[in-house]
User: Fold these one by one.
Assistant:
Number 1:
Amino acid sequence: MAGRQFTRLRAFILSICLFLAGCSATQEDSLQEASTGLFAMETYMELTAYGGSAETALEQSADYITELEAMWSVTDESSEIYRVNHSNGQPVSVSPETEKLLRFSLEIAERTNGALDPTIYPLINAWGFIDQEYRIPADEEIENLLTLTGYEQITLAEGSVTLPQGMQIDLGAVGKGYTGELLADYLKNQGITSALLDIGGNIQLIGGRPDGSSWKLGIQNPFGDGSIGVLEAEDCAVVTSGGYERYFTDDSGNKYCHILDPATGKPADSGLVSVTIIADSGLLCDALSTAIFVMGSEKGIEYWRTYGGFDMLLITSENEIILTEGIAGRFALNNGQSYAVQVLEA
Ligand code: ADP
Ligand code: MG
């Protein structure tokens, strides 16, 4: 009797030990961090993922980014976009990724009355934002180039794009957000449940941190160094467009930013200095962060009320923060930051 009890107890202890060993093995596995940094799409990207398969999955992600860049680059002569831009009005066949990116851009262009317009490229080029030979084009030159813009003139059929002769497109306002979204889908398929993909400041998150807590993201100070506050988020995209990201200054100190208002052909001057969009889709976030930066707070708020499906945090040149109710409880201003904060309710 005593012997059998001892055996049972031993078996019980053994099974506890095995259970604990099992726990620590899976926990260790999920905490295993892999990260990779690379320069692509004219920006620095840093991908961090957790789990035993993370390292291999990130290596493949880097190849995937290279493939996407090869489709969308405006300067690489073999890219799909380069071919569209030099097609002399002939249809050009494109990949499903490019078709989706363009179709979505056109939908947002339509909804924002052209605040997002992929045909703005000739002006981006004229202002020197492609070759970094910055200049201020004369009004007449801007007027002339504006006649070569207008998203309505793009014809998108299944698998092909036709652009009138002389027009050119640029998917720079949406490509990085879509890249983050595609990478997250890929990594989730590889079994990754926790990752932070920083695509040049466009963040795409998979799950929460490996310990189960939320990711804590700094919101860049548009007026200086560091961050103004922290946003908690998980399993979504967080994308910021800001006038401080890329700009040049003239002799009098005036700043010219890389986001242009397609209505004027000049740098956007809507009173917003930073627009952060939070939603599941990185593509939606990237498209809207650029569009709302151009539209300004009033039209941006109207857009949010009409279409919804995302949260946003706007910073105005008057030191105001406007944020939607869905993230109000998840954003905390850093000590010492003085902003008037307004929460929007639907
Ligand atoms: P970033 O990619 O620098 O984070 P955005 O997503 O706002 O910022 O994209 C800005 C880029 O999009 C510019 O560098 C330019 O190539 C292009 N662009 C600028 N203004 C517009 C616009 N109104 N519509 C579409 N694309 C734009
Ligand atoms: Mg954008």
Note: The pocket of magnesium ion (ligand 2) is lined by residues 173-174, 241, 286, 289-290 (CB under 6 Å).
Number 2:
Amino acid sequence: MKTIKSIDIIQPDDWHTHFREGDLLNLISKFSARVNNRCLVMPNLNTPITTSKLAKKYLKDIKNSLQNSRLSILIPCYLTNNLDLVDFEKSLIDNVFIGAKLYPSNVTTNSSFGISNIEEIFPALEILQKTNKHLLIHGEKIRENIDIFDREKYFIDEELSIIRRKFPDLKIVLEHVSSKYGADFVSQNKNIAGTITPQHMLLTKKDVFFDDQINPHHYCMPIVKDEKDLIALRNYACSGNNKFFLGTDSAPHDIIDKPPNLKSKPGIFSAPCSIELYTEIFDQENSLENLESFSSINGPNFYNLPVNKSKIRLINQKWTLEECSQSQNIKVKNFYGGNELNWKVVNLNK
Ligand code: NCD
Ligand code: ZN
């Protein structure tokens, strides 16, 4: 059997990541800049990014944190039920916003300003469809009798299918697809694609829930699910299906906010090793030849943006990732921190 020692791929983009703000932003943005050409940075800050003014200020803060990196930043508008639609439309046309993000209310970190009745955002969706901009969705529905593992399915059946029918030409990205049900929906419907995180292809609920506590560093929304879901996600990603692409959902929280119980903030910080983990997954599935479509081609194609020109090289070499990333006031647990990884990035810039 031939062992591959290195692989060159077109430089990746991360189509779903969190950069946060303040000290956390200054600590973590460099990890995404180390491999990506573009990052689509989520707008769920403490004050959500809902206007062009807030987006421009955030972009400036991110650029300052990155110093001389050439990373390009794309920001979607956080949808609320009282958006200034004139500012929204102009910002889409001016490319201040790449599209808009739908957070159902209270499903995840800083989603309390999100949407509880989708009809309230139909005017905004109309504008997105008309301007040919994308709707990004956190696809989970919360209701008293909906099990945490079924939230994605309920969202698809009760909300997404309505949006799909009412706005057939709207380009939708179902973010961090976490279930076989969700991935099948993406593959079977038109004008919809999905991002897949490393954790949803590496973990199942057994890695999160223990007798009387949880592993907060494996706790994210949507929650990781069963073996059958993990296998379906791996199959879609690794088969080269062009409806699925890289979105890490790297979502750092200070370890103070990560107690080993359900009071923990959801989110897994994978930026220090995400491309290495994706490469490992594709290697395990004997599909390294499809890594580049997933990491670097399907995303820009779906967003109608050019594919990157430069390349990066990954070599098959063991290294150990530091347990945590930290600065004076903050400490974040790295996903796979303290573990050995099999792939390592060597930047090429061809
Ligand atoms: C994300 C965060 O912390 O901002 N958390 C998560 O568990 N994925 C938000 C999100 O994308 O849901
Ligand atoms: Zn996210």
Note: The pocket of N-carbamoyl-L-aspartate (ligand 1) is lined by residues 18, 44, 108-109, 138, 220-221, 249, 251, 266-267 (CB under 6 Å).
